[in-house]
Design goal:
By secondary structure, the chain is α/β, with parallel strands linked by helices. Helices cover 61% and strands 10% of the residues. It has a domain of 230 residues: Rossmann fold, CATH 3.40.50. Helix 3 links the parallel strand 1 and strand 2.
């Protein structure tokens, strides 16, 4: 008896589904169109460039982290990789992981002469082929903290590497990239879309976003493609808790007694704990999620404009960046500690009124 009832229910559901499709031809057309678009996009996104063994890729910031892993992966895939390291030690360690035949160059992106030397080296290596790929990966995060803990030099330390250095490297390599009708991959951050930390980091990454958008629109006529990588939080040297906490202590210890009084010792302790909690909670150890995006931007025939790297970027930070500003403001207000002196300031303002 139960089996007969189940068969009747299944027939009823099937008949209702047929009725819905019969009465809604527009629905069928819409679903078919959506499916067709998704399939076409997936096929287009999977198409790859050819003859990678003849293509030169220049990557900055290859001592550790994303740049180091990307250099290893592209080298093993057959690209001619020129890895730029800040130190000789970083260069030797990278060669030890790959081969002594891997090309490396010492580069300080804040030093114009160092950039010129790198450009001259790459021009000699590439010859008439030009440079197929430039990956601007070099960067730093600290100093980062409350804005009024900073001085102008703290902003320069970050902006000179992450933004000004990136721009100068790009401009000087651009003739070689145009020659190859190649592509540029700039590493930004979710913090370039949603600013939630004082200092130069968010400013620099927001600048990378804007510079890359302008560059992409200008270079499309020359066959040059520009992609932006927007990583979430990953375990690299940039997110090292030891380095971040050491610099926070430096910032706190140099504050004037008045500023320290307004924030309070407990604020500093809680701020450090929040940083520790966020890094331990959000930081992903699998940095290949970022290098996968970089690799696609270099090897895809039709690279994407933007790549959100990491689950936190895709499902939290980037969606939050589209929300009204008050949503992010309230969320961060709940997470971050409040200065001890905020009540005193509020009381004074109320008296003045």
């Amino acid at each position: 008896m139960m089996q007969g009832q189940e068969e009747v229910q299944e027939e009823d559901l099937f008949d209702r589904f047929k009725e819905i499709l019969t009465l809604n031809p527009a629905l069928i057309g819409s679903l078919t169109s959506i499916a067709f678009i998704i399939i076409c996009w997936a096929i287009r996104d999977s198409l790859k460039v050819k003859d990678v063994c003849e293509k030169h890729i220049f990557i900055t910031g290859c001592d550790t982290g994303f740049g180091n892993l990307l250099a290893q992966r592209l080298y093993r895939k057959g690209f001619i990789v020129i890895a730029a390291c800040l130190t000789e030690k970083g260069s030797q360690e990278l060669k030890a992981c790959t081969s002594s035949s891997l090309r490396t160059v010492i580069l300080n992106v804040t030093n114009p002469r160092s950039i010129d030397n790198a450009v001259a080296y790459v021009a000699t290596e590439t010859g008439n082929k030009g440079l197929f790929g430039l990956v601007n990966n070099a960067g730093r995060a600290i100093p980062i903290g409350p804005t009024d803990w900073m001085d102008i030099e703290d902003f320069h330390r970050v902006l000179d590497v992450n933004l000004i250095g990136l721009i100068e490297v790009t401009l000087k390599f651009l003739p070689l990239i145009k020659k190859a009708r190649g592509r540029i991959v700039n590493v930004a951050s979710v913090m370039g879309r949603l600013a939630f930390g004082g200092g130069g980091y968010c400013l620099s990454k927001c600048g990378v976003e804007s510079f890359s958008d302008s560059l992409r629109r200008d270079m499309q006529y020359f066959g040059v493609k520009v992609s932006i990588i927007e990583p979430g939080f990953f375990k690299t040297g940039v997110t090292s808790l030891e380095i971040i906490e050491k610099d926070l202590n430096r910032l706190w210890n140099r504050l004037t007694p008045e500023v320290k009084r307004l924030y309070g010792e407990k604020y500093f302790e809680k701020y450090v704990k929040v940083q520790r909690l966020s890094m331990n909670t959000f930081c992903d150890a699998d940095i290949s999620k970022v290098t996968n995006c970089m690799e696609h931007a270099l090897t895809a025939r039709y690279p994407r404009t933007r790549y959100g790297a990491g689950w936190d970027a895709k499902f939290f930070w980037l969606p939050l960046s589209y929300a009204p500003a008050i949503v992010a403001d309230v969320m961060l207000k709940l997470i971050l500690p409040r200065p001890l002196g905020h009540k005193r300031v509020l009381s004074k303002n109320q008296v003045d009124v």
